[in-house]
Design brief:
It is a single chain. By secondary structure, the protein is an all-beta fold. The protein has one domain: Galactose-binding domain-like (Jelly Rolls, Sandwich), CATH 2.60.120.260. The protein has no helices and 6 strands. The strands form 2 sheets. It has a 3-stranded antiparallel beta sheet with strand order 4-1-6, with no helix packed on it. A 3-stranded antiparallel beta sheet has the order 3-2-5, with no helix packed on it. Strand 2 and strand 3 form a beta hairpin. The chain is globular and about 40 Å long.
Length: about 90
Amino acid sequence: MNFKEYADVFSASINATNGSGQIEIRQDSPAGLLLGVVDIPKMKNQNNFMMISGKISEVVGIKDIYLVFKGKTKGRFDLDWFSFSE
């Protein structure tokens, strides 16, 4: 991704009806520098998406970004979109 201006907030629209978990935002590889972690709460309505967001370490320039999904149960997450902002 090209972060022309610095970003320090990650936001996403997600559905997690099968379980809660986290999204790790990492730089350069799935095991790379951890920029931040956003919690994903379990949802009751499988037809709706919810917005989640969290602070990340400041990022500037062209970077390879990986979203690593960690689940506390055998559920899955549906990601509608994600974005970075300041």
